[in-house]
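Milestone M4 deliverable, item 7.
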Amino acid sequence: MATKKPTSSPQQAQVVTPESVDRPSTPNMSYGSGDHSFTLQAIMELQKSVGEMNANLQAMKSSLDGVKAKVDDLVGWKHKILGGAAAIAAVIAVLAFILGKASEYLTFKQSAQLAIGTSAVPAQPTVDSSLVLPKKP
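Output delivered:
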């Protein structure tokens, strides 16, 4: 836009063009040129954040590996205990079967004194007098 300075006479009018006006220097913001310090700073901050995230992920991975090792140890102990219990149950079952079959072939004699409800002296048979037949004369 051209502006005119007011002059005292119309013959001495001076035209001011936009090129002759003092302007502050502004960076050229066109694509592919100009000041990229903000973009570079943003990329550096992103790289720093990604590095921190990678460090945190590595720390989590190492702690997770420790937890996995502990869980694997517990599972191993569980399997050992269950296997031992199954082996003991199998041994008891086999022993019970053997003792059950052996009891069919073995007889144990009890002494008369140890028998329940008997005395050391053998009892004499008793005869009911009402059942005795009368004697003949």
